[in-house]
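User: Hello! I'm new to structural biology and keep hearing that structure can be predicted from sequence alone. Could you demonstrate with 5-methyltetrahydropteroyltriglutamate--homocysteine methyltransferase? Please show me the input and the output so I can see what each looks like.

Assistant: Of course. The first part below is the input, the amino acid sequence of 5-methyltetrahydropteroyltriglutamate--homocysteine methyltransferase. The second part is the output, the predicted structure written as tokens.
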Amino acid sequence: MTKTLLRAPFRADHVGSFLRPERLKKARLQKQNGEITADQLRKIEDEEIIRLVAKQKEAGLQAVSDGEFRRAWWHFDFLAELEGVELYEADSGLQFNGVQTKAHGIRVIGKVDFGDHPMLEHYKFLHQIAGDHTAKFTIPSPNMLLLRAAIQDGVYDSREELFDDLVQAYQKAIQAFYEAGCRYLQLDDTSWAAFLSEDSRQKIIAGGDEPKELAELFARAVNESIAQKPDDMTITMHICRGNFKSTFMSSGGYDYVSEIIFGGLNVDGLFLEFDDERSGGFNPLRHVTRDDLQIVLGLITSKYGELEQAGQIKARIEEASRYLNLNQLCLSPQCGFASTEEGNILTEEQQWEKIKHVINIADDVWK
């Protein structure tokens, strides 16, 4: 049995975002208040990302990310820089379990396309400092625009028309990241959470859609977006139920859309939340139809600092291996540590202990 994987996702991996250091939070606020320039902020971001990458290497990770340190949001920052899309001040934020995000939203105001996107430069900086490690970059799934964006009247006559432009924009994006050197790209996607509970499915119906048809549309959006990816590029997907200040947005197991997720998505790997009872059991893994699909079990929570019992995590990996060969399984935290710049409620020291916990357990399991 192979202990390590030579290609992502790795036995011990991570979702991508890390807690923002206080120095970076202060600098972003200073830039917002006009106290420092964009160049001064970028210099501080560069320095903090260099430190973060060094910490990831020191911890023993094979893949390193920039922690999403240049972003306020895991999704809006990327989507708002697509041509035809803008960020705007909304009436209210996104509702989580007892808290609400900043009142921001995105809207489509013109034909959607991918052009001179600033995150290409963000990736190039990460690539430059990754060295012998794999540079991992995260962007939101195309479904996040379909799910979250308001569409200005007169821009698109139908969702299918928007869909076609969006897919073409993502095809261009994937090729552009590849040409910049990216070989490990992750699509982050909370749209699947809309199908995981009866209440959320009823909301889809109330909005005029049929849940299974909408799920098929989301699968098409992903598959068509990545259809032309080069063979030596790994594209994974992280499916999330929401992550903001250690809270969540939705609950439910993967059962309702398990055949679509596990048998119908053409990604190379799936990062899945399995850290508590909200995520359901491993039974849906029986719908995995490919032996080249890696399933990354998010068994270590990023929402609080207390370390899980290693024996319990190993037992859960063994349970998952009853449905899928152990060689197709990997381990990670269930989500990033800071999907927004506010971050989850744990310390940086606890964050790194979580990462090391993942690595130590993976080393024991995949000897």
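User: So the tokens describe the shape?

Assistant: Right, they're a compact way of writing down the 3D structure. Reading them back into a model, for example: The CA atoms of residues 102 and 230 lie 37 Å apart.
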